């Protein structure tokens, strides 16, 4: 007869909640502040709490920025960005911001193919952004289209040069 012992790992609901909200500190081990090391209340995994305490330590305890930033595992630049966000938006400014698109997501290959073909036949007074909007129903700044075409040519040197 075999006895199988099953142990259930208790879910860390706080970590999961912080991760879901984007407030999970990516490097909690870098926080070396004495409050976070000596008191259970302070949680280095909570990025909002870490940022708030970093600002409080500088303002209330009059500690230098370099010392405070270092003990909270952040750079001076991160300190000043956090301070500006807090002054502009209060505690809500300490929440991590959602990152926007990193590329011209509307300028798909289909759109760029259309623009290249359109430019060969278009009259000089016609506007590329209006043609794209009429064809695809999306608005794109003409300069964004130009930049996307330049990036595309850099990726495919020689294409179209005959």
* Tally of individual domains: 2
Shape: elongated
Determine the mean pLDDT: 87
What is the end-to-end distance?
Answer: 80 Å
User: How much β-strand is present in the residues?
Assistant: under 5%
Q: From N to C, what is the helix and strand string?
A: HHHHHHHH
| Tally of alpha and pi helices | 8
Structural category: mainly alpha
The major pleated sheet works out as:
none
Low-confidence stretches: none
What is the oligomer described by this structure? single chain
Brief summary:
The chain is mainly alpha-helical and 162 residues long. Helices cover 52% and strands 0% of the residues.
How would you describe this structure to a colleague?
The chain is mainly alpha-helical. It folds into two domains: about 15-95, no CATH class; about 110-155. The chain has helices at about 15-20, 35-40, 45-60, 65-70, 75-90, 110-120, 130-135, 140-155. The longest helix has 14 residues, at about 45-60.
């Amino acid at each position: 007869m075999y006895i199988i012992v099953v142990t259930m790992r208790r879910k860390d609901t706080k970590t999961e909640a912080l991760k879901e909200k984007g407030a999970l500190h990516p490097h909690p081990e870098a926080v070396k502040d004495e409050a976070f090391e000596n008191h259970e209340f302070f949680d280095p995994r909570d990025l909002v709490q870490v940022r708030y305490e970093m600002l409080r330590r500088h303002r209330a305890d009059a500690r230098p920025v370099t010392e405070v930033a270092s003990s909270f595992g952040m750079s001076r630049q991160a300190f000043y960005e956090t301070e500006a966000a807090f002054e502009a938006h209060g505690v809500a400014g300490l929440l991590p911001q959602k990152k926007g698109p990193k590329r011209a997501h509307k300028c798909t290959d289909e759109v760029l193919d259309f623009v290249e073909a359109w430019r060969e036949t278009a009259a000089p007074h016609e506007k590329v952004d209006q043609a794209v909007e009429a064809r695809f129903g999306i608005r794109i700044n003409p300069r964004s289209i130009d930049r996307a075409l330049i990036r595309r040519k850099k990726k495919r040197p020689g294409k179209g040069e005959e």
